[in-house]
Every structure is written in C-alpha cells, then in structure tokens.
C-alpha cells in the first residue's frame, strides 16, 4: 500500500495496528515517526537497548509471563518495532536474531526499511535480502520513497489481510490524498531501474557501487583514527 508521506506512513499506520491492551517493544534509537506512532496508538511502550537481544528477550519474557499491569491478562498483541538501518548512527538491525525471538515468543514484527530499501542487499531489496531471510517472516514491512527513490511518500507491505485492513482503518490511507502522477512515475521508473526491468544494468551497478563506496569510506575513516558507529 503506497502513501503520500513517508513520516505519516509510520505515525498514522501504527495506531491502526495496535492500541490499548497491546504492547510495543521499541529499539531505543528508533526514528521519531515510529515513536510518535507508538505514542498515538495508546499501546503500552517499553524500550529495549539498541540492537541488544538480551534486553529485548528480557522484555519479551516478562511480557509473556506477567501480562498486563494490574490485571495480568495476556497482552492482545506484542509488537517489536525496529529499523533496517538506523538513521541515528547507521547501524544495521540484527534481523536474524530478532526474527528468531519473534517466533519464539509469538510476537509481531514491524520493520522500517526507510534507509535500507534500494540500498543494501545484493540487488537492493533491503535487510531481508542482506541476511537471506524470507520476507514473509516480517509481519509489517515499511519503507519510504524519499531516500533511494528520490521521490516522496512511503509504503506498507504485508499479507493481503493486513493491507486490506489498513486501507479501511489507517488515517493516512483514509484521510490523506494519493500520490501525484509525476511522483508515482518517478518511483516506478526507479524501481524498474533497481530491479533491472528497464533493460539496463544501471540500477544494479549503482547498488554495488554504493556498497563498495561505503566499505572504502569506512576503511579510510578507520585508518585516520575515527570512531565509527554502525
């Protein structure tokens, strides 16, 4: 499902997915749009240390064992919220470990690929491709068209039931206008270029060049004695 504003793709869709009686486990370096969406949802929010699986599992175990405060009823939903590449410091999510924990504790996973889609993975398909994971293991996959695509807007991807539900209940889908035709065409052309469906290898070459440039930049910074995050 495509939406006209990247920030609102998080902030206006999360309240449609979780609410009172639900629990959000959020990485401490998540983007403001994720934080705002979580706050607007009315769900209980607990923050785990950045990319720290021990911290996340501790919260998951506590949530499953003790349930909601006071009543101790089971949470209606437990949703883990993470980013593919964190804009705060450029670190990559420990996705295989998070998927394993999600399955172990029967939680949902919301993945923000705003900074990774079109940029990482052998063919630019994001962190799921980077780690060789099945995208179906991600319950809600979000991304924006403002980074690799050079356009505007965002998207939510998931099962048909999820998309159909959001089309009816998401404030961003119901109360905002659709993308303009020029922006839509820009996104389609870039997507075809990255996928190699435009009859050229330009897109793939740029994805590979970006990876090489990143490795070179990091190595030179290390040689110069800089502290590197991410």
UniProtKB/TrEMBL annotation:
Keywords: Acyltransferase, Pyridoxal phosphate, Transferase. GO terms for cellular component: membrane; serine palmitoyltransferase complex. Its cofactor is pyridoxal 5'-phosphate. SUPFAM superfamilies: PLP-dependent transferases. GO terms for molecular function: pyridoxal phosphate binding; serine C-palmitoyltransferase activity. InterPro entries: Aminotrans_II_pyridoxalP_BS (IPR001917), Aminotransferase_I/II_large (IPR004839), AON_synthase_class-II (IPR050087), PyrdxlP-dep_Trfase (IPR015424), PyrdxlP-dep_Trfase_major (IPR015421). PROSITE patterns: AA_TRANSFER_CLASS_2 (PS00599). It comes from the Eukaryota. Belongs to the class-II pyridoxal-phosphate-dependent aminotransferase family. This is Aminotransferase class I/classII large domain-containing protein. It comes from Coregonus suidteri. The lineage of its organism: Eukaryota, Metazoa, Chordata, Craniata, Vertebrata.
